[in-house]
Amino acid sequence: MTNHCCGPGYASPAEAMTAPREKLLYTIAIYTGTGIQKPDYLCTIDVDPESSTYSQVISRLQMPGIGDELHHSGWNACSSCHGDASMERKYLIVPGVRSSNLHIIDCGTDPRSPTLFKVIDGAEIKARTNLSAPHTVHCLGSDIIVSMLGDAQGNAPGGYLQLSKEFEVVGRWENSMGSIKFGYDFWYQPRHNVMVSSEWAAPNTFMPGFDLEEVGHLKYGREIHFWDFEKKEPKQTFYLGEDGLIPLEVRFHHNPDSSHGFVGAALSANIIHWWKDAAGDWQWEKIVDVGNEPHPEWPIPIPGVISVILLSMDDRHLYLCNWLHGDIRQYDISDPHNAKLTGQVWMGGLLGRAPEVNGVKVTGGPQMIQLSLDGKRLYVTTSLFSTWDNQFYPEIRTNGGCMLMVNCDTENGGMEIDPLFVVDFGKEPNGPSRCHETRYPGGDCTSDIWV
Amino acid sequence: MTSFTITLANQGGAAFDVDHRKPLLQSLREHGVDLPYGCKYGGCITCAAKIISGKVDQKAQRALNNRQINNGYIILCVARPMSDCTLEVGVESHDKLYRNPFLDPLAAHELKADIATPLEAKK
After folding, report:
1. Which of B39, B59, B65, B100 has the highest number of chain A CBs within 10 A, making it the mutation to test binding with A?
2. CB pairs under 8 A between A and B
3. Which tens digit of pLDDT belongs to each residue from A52-92?
4. ipTM of this model?
5. Are B59 and B26 in contact (CB under 8 A)?
6. Which of A66, A98, A100, A301 is deepest in the core (most CB within 10 A)?
7. Which of A34, A150, A387 sits opposite B45 (nearest CB)?
8. Which domains does chain B carry?
9. In this structure, which topology does domain A13-439 adopt according to CATH?
């Protein structure tokens, strides 16, 4: 049972898993880079199977201007503030990667129709902190920090923006970036006084699109960084080399006592696992290696490009998406050193295994995913980033993205695409848009951290 | 002020006089032209346009590789005109902007300026 006397979220991951089923999703959709001169927007999607508008967008909140490229988002409060009765999970912070604007969206007053509460102008953030290109948002008790991938001119490594709970710019969170070359995602595990951060590239490198040759010129990341969380400075770096090209999503176990964590190396298409050994030293290893796949029209085999990973709330299953191959995989990581493949489904992708699903042509591949708290429903969207979409899946300009749902067997393992759920973003009122990250009003598997 | 005339070939040949000191994106938007843009610091390519004739100063751009520059692309949020120019704007001009990087690799001289190897002079 949720303890209503306390603050937001849940007392433990186990309690989160008993929460009521999600009835609404918040998913961003973009027009940036599509040729449609409309703002990006936040969709509210009905996922209550008892509702007459199930599997439909029921409201759309436009941002004030065009060109933000909404991408990821984060709550103002999560289970890290569970003990603080003055906090409420009410506001979604939705950054624009290109504009550097931070949109603070009130999802609490009317959860079915969120409203814009405040915009922190990208120009103010650049002027006050010399940072741009916001990406991951995590709350830290009453504060909010945002990984910023560039300086005000779009050069790496950027840093971390700290906001107060009133959404005022506090300044730079970190005391030092050490020798870190790039930023991207981060996750913290306070009981081990550690934060782990990963590396994409400088905004000036990744925003215009992907030049493969720039990987060889060391313009893309291949390291992960272990921070002294209290001192707010990096302490140790692991060079992952060819096994860890472009390490993106960082996920610690939800269990706050665990030191185990994982990162998906997008271009190497590997899962990297780390943990603290008996001597108290951090170690890493590769636990999943997705092989390249031949394609009749390609001179070289296609890498999977693992664009996202996610852990179930009970830390038993790891999900990954191969955005170019077109599959989502479920691994049992009960033993985190030995990942066992337990499920796989196909949607879109360049290998042509599932060009159409539930009557909708899937343009793009499985990309962002969000898992229900009970681990049984995985919501999947297909767009990665406007310029990269335009390179690999140019038909997305006219077809738009889509959202599908995958039913996951949490007992025996296995996955199956739900035949009744599909949201076709190709049929949006202002024209085809592209959908990316999703959050639930009650928290989800990539929001909540326990202190 | 020095002004130049900017003609938009794919918007019915509409022409606008602009201040040479201002970025083209700013000038054209002030004239009411609805153009895509993103970062406004020359790093993100969303506002790319194709120059058909004329010359611009776009030293501040960081988004384009040399192949894109050779194909005529300019970054409107930082490019300033140095002459009268004719442009194609918007995604309709992006036919050669995006390529599949696995199918169509760049030669060493086609990379971004900071890592490109200059072509040897032809003998």
Report:
1. B39
2. 108
3. 999 999 999 999 999 999 999 999 999 999 989 999 999 99
4. 0.96
5. no
6. A98
7. A387
8. 3-110 (3.10.20.30)
9. Methylamine Dehydrogenase; Chain H (2.130.10)
